[in-house]
Amino acid sequence: MRLELQGITKRFGTFVANDSIDLVVEPGQIHCLLGENGAGKSTLMNCLYGLYQAEEGEILLDGVPQHFAGPGDAMAAGIGMVHQHFMLVPVFTVAENVMLGNEATKGIALDTKAARERVNEIAGNFNFHVDPDAVIEDLPVGVQQRVEIIKALARDAEILIFDEPTAVLTPQETDELMGIMDQLRKEGKAIVFITHKLREVREVADKITVIRRGKVVGEASPTSTDSELAEMMVGRAVQLTVDKGEPHYTSNALEVKDLVVTSADGQVLVDNISFTVRGGEIMTIAGVDGNGQTELANALLGLEPGVTGSITLNGKELLGKTPRQMLDEGIGFIPADRNEDGLVGAFTVAENLMLNRATGAPFVKGGVLQIPFRNEFAREKIEEFDVRTEGIDQPVNALSGGNAQKVIIAREMSKDLNLFVASQPTRGVDVGSIEFIHKRVVEARDSGIPVVVVSTELDEAVGLADQLMVMYRGGIVGIVPADTPRDVLGMMMAGIPPEQAAIAPVPVTEEGAQA
Amino acid sequence: MSTVTVDPSTVLPDEGPIEHRIVEKRSVKTATILAVATALLALLLVASPRQGKTNFQITLGNEFFSIGEGGVVAVPAVPFAWICVAIMAVLTVVAFVLSYRYSKFPGWASAVFGLLAVAAFLSWAGAGAQGRLNVVGLIGNAILVAIPLVFGALGGVIGERAGVVNIAIEAQLLMAAFTGAVVGSLTANAWVGLLAAILAGAGVAAILGVFAINYRVEQVIVGVVLNVLIIGVTTFLFSAWLQTDMQRLNSTLEHRFPDIAIPLLSRIPIIGPALFNRPVIVYIMYVAVAAVWFALYRTRWGLRTRAVGEHPKAADTVGIKVNATRWLAVLIAGAIVGIGGASYTLVSNPSFNREMTAGFGYIALAAVIFGNWDPIRASLAGLLFGFAINLQSVLSVIGSPVPSQFMLMLPYVVTLLAVAGLVGKSRAPAADGVAYTVEGH
User: Fold this and answer.
1) Nearest-angstrom CA–CA distance, B349 and B180
2) Domain boundaries along the sequence of chain B
3) Which residue of A has its CA nearest to B313?
């Protein structure tokens, strides 16, 4: 089925999210929609899928204009979508999710047997196995995504939209997804692949359309280089690799010994791990999300209850201290979920910049906020950290992801640091801001303090790393240098120690790394 | 670097969650609560020993066979109580041993424990009394008391499974009781009264729906306001209208649902007369529990209803009309609660009286949560609360030594113990109480 969008315009109030966008997707083709976060890609697809109503423009399928009042109409017309945030009911089984909205019945009862068979049949076509009776919330995200694909195919979708499908996947899962997309292409489906990851685009795209600030800025060939694509996306030349010099070690050190983090229900989330990060060095922690990295980072700030072992910073024991005391030890911390743990969304930029300093001078004197001082501080910081905001009084939830993250970074870096811990520092951040944030992280390292970065983006973990640690099921699989081949890193993320992957164990030259 | 020898496709975890090592923890919560309950009963027997026998009326005479002399079994009160306490103590020890071995104390054993506790307590309370402790009545009246609780809980479960918190169960019960009384009296027909009560329950639910679904007002507040409003409306109508002609407008004495004995079943000792010689609404209740369970878990309607309560956007993206689905669920829930409300004036009482639902709507709500948003478990919770409420009145009738003020606390003590000790983690539907709107329209 041939999909054609003509002059789609979508406004939210005065903000134009999509400005007269034209797009043609042919059957048997993977069409990449490339653009930064907030460029309007997802909005466009939501218009196509009937979730939003476009103010202007037309959707044509095989040349016939369509009018979608809701997703039901779009689905009936043969459009299926694999959403960025999976549209699966977490407590339902795979079969229930696949049949939802499209249920076969026997009399008045649901025909779950038919649904199960349908799941097995479609999964079988793609040579993967999904248990139809598994409950979604128990499945890893990669499998949940397959359920989303099965769901679309079960409705005989001819046009498939993948909205940032690889954001949550391991490198292997990404490769497998690419395989599935390729197979779908061969079956003659028209595929729209939304992403901002350049590597993937060049790998599978037949055609690339780049969107910036709600407008189509041009088409690119799959043979374009990363920097050409990035420049089109951002509108200026962007440095994609992390630029950092040789590390200059100092005598400072973060030493973690026998650290165990146990959850309330008895799961050992961080399982007896030890490592050392020297001053002037970045240790990145890679791994599939949910293998204990976030808990490890949280434990470094004293946020996790149920921790045993030892955390020493420059010889001083930190375990058992409250987060407040940890902050006073000079720890800068970027939480994994900035909206949940890093910022108070309804507070202004200025208020968020002083959130962890409300205990005394200079921000508070005699129990009273020093507003002029705070505002002066905030103005300085948004200048210094290039926070694009309408002013220091704008609530942070009105900022883009990149700018909100910069507010946190400004706050955490505006004090004397002895340790910097960043969890997913560039998650949901646009390419331009990623470059800026990486620069700041390297600056922190070059100031001579230990730096710990948790990242599920392998590119980032590799780019920033002086040492790279891979975690799996709460333990350390290995600590390796940054130039370890990606396929080895990928296998380590699935729990295979570097030695077993037939790789010579990395010589640990200095005191420190121990797996 | 040498080559990689492991094929990634063979080693990648294909499904299943990321598994962390598990440190098993012992949970002594249940065992501790059993120990406390056993100790309290033993303390009662020691501190306040009583003389004489307790007469338990087991059968009424219409059963297949009779138990005891004229259906009465007399047991030596205190020794019998001590035997029960002894078995409870054994169960408690078993619970501790099981928790030490990381095992769970089974639910049926908790139920046995509860029965023993009740038996011991009744035996002690009824000691030396001239009257008889009617076991059949104890269970049978508990069923009657539980009717509004069970229907209320079923309505609550349906509403909340669809994502609409129904605090207004109390209002729906009261309005239905009122309407059932008036229409039942005027038409001299209980069935017409029941139908009117169902419509009244659905009517109150419709007000909830308008504000909670269409106008996205905070659902708890709408519910509470509705409860207060309906108390006001019914009290006003009762004083200003019904009391002008009670005989014509508010007297269902002659028109209530009569007891219907089910052949054979009603002749089983104890449970026969208690469960199967009841007004038709009780039988509707049995069917309703099963029907709601089937509808929620086995039909298209149920799947969609649960989907909009868990993840409305996911439902929307597969073409399910979220708010229409919620509307239907809220109306059905109101209608079901309406049946429960009708039982006040068409089964239990001969007329409507102001505020006669006396907070049962809130207890039904507690049953919803206690029952973990499951129709069967919520109904069982409703029955348990009904039993506790009924026990209190039975004991005051036979003249137990316990001050009546203490007895009034009984249902709530039972609730607390049950919720604290016997319930695992309860989990509300994810989108419960959250209005649904799509940005961009």
Assistant:
1) 11
2) 29-131, 140-415
3) A87
B419 pLDDT band, cuts 50/70/90, is low
How far A385 CA sits from the closest chain B CA (Å)? 32
Touching B: A residues 308-367, CB under 8 Å: none
Measured distance CA(A149)–CA(A141) in Å, rounded: 12
The answer to whether A159 touches A78, Cβ cutoff 8 Å, is: yes
Q: Which positions ≥6 away from A142 have C-beta within 8 Å?
A: A168, A169, A170, A173, A176, A177
Question: Which residues in chain A touch residue B439, judged by CB atoms under 8 angstroms apart?
Answer: 12
Residue of A8, A82, A89 for testing the chain B interface, max B β-carbons within 10 Å: A89
Q: Is B79 helix (H, G, I), strand (E, B) or coil?
A: helix
* Closest chain A residue to B312, measured at CA: A89
Compare CB distances from B310 to A90, A175, A504 and report the shortest one's residue: A90
Q: Return the H-helix or E-strand segment holding A161.
A: strand A159-163
> Cβ(A8)–Cβ(A44) under 8 Å?
yes
Query: Do A267 and B439 make contact, defined as CB atoms within 8 angstroms?
Result: no
A75 touching B, CB under 8 A?
A: yes
Closest approach of chain A CAs to the CA of B24, in angstroms?
6
Of B4, B298, B319, the CB nearest to A488: B4
pLDDT tens-digit series, residues A71-85: 889 998 999 999 888
User: d(Cα A221, Cα A168) in Å, to the nearest integer?
Assistant: 26
For the cut 70, the answer to whether the pLDDT of residue A512 exceeds it is no
B43: which residues sit within 8 A by CB, 6+ positions away?
none
Q: At A47, which helix (H) or strand (E)?
A: helix A41-48
Give the predicted TM-score (pTM) of the model.
0.82
Going by CATH, does the domain composed of B140-415 fall within 1.25.40? no
Q: B310 contacts in A (CB within 8 Å)?
A: 89-92
3-state secondary structure of B127: coil
Q: What is the distance between the alpha carbons of residues B121 and B137, in angstroms, rounded to a whole number?
A: 17
Which residue bears the tokens 């060095």? Answer: A281
Q: What is the band of B60 on the pLDDT scale with cuts at 50, 70, 90? A: confident
- What are the CB-based long-range contacts (under 8 Å, 24+) for B94-101? B95/B30, B95/B31, B95/B34, B96/B28, B96/B31, B96/B35, B98/B31, B99/B26, B99/B27, B99/B28, B99/B30, B99/B31, B100/B26
d(CA A34, CA A38): 11
Q: Which residues of A touch B1 (CB under 8 A)?
A: 485, 488, 503-504
Spell out the residues 6+ positions from residue B35 whose beta carbon is closer than 8 angstroms to its own.
B92, B96
Q: pLDDT of B63-104, one tens digit each?
A: 888 887 778 888 898 899 999 999 999 999 999 999 888 888
- How does strand A3-12 pair with strand A15-25? antiparallel
Closest in A103, A143, A494 to B303, CB measured? A103
A425, A407 in Cβ contact below 8 A?
A: no
In residues, how long is chain A?
Answer: 515
One-character DSSP codes across A408-477: HHHHHHSS--SEEEEESTTTT--HHHHHHHHHHHHHHHHTT--EEEE-S-HHHHHHH-SEEEEEETTEEE
Output the 3-class SS for B88-125.
Answer: HHHHHHHHHHHHHCCCCCCHHHHHHHHHHHHHHHHHHH
Q: How confident is the model at residue A501 (pLDDT cuts 50, 70, 90)?
A: low
Q: Is any Cβ of chain B less than 8 angstroms from the Cβ of A81?
A: yes
ipTM of the complex as predicted: 0.84
Q: Assess contact for B230 and B173: CB atoms under 8 A.
A: no
* Cα–Cα distance for residue pair B386/B364, rounded to 1 Å: 10
Beta B133-134 vs A316-317: how paired, if at all?
Answer: unpaired
Cα A317 from chain centre? 33
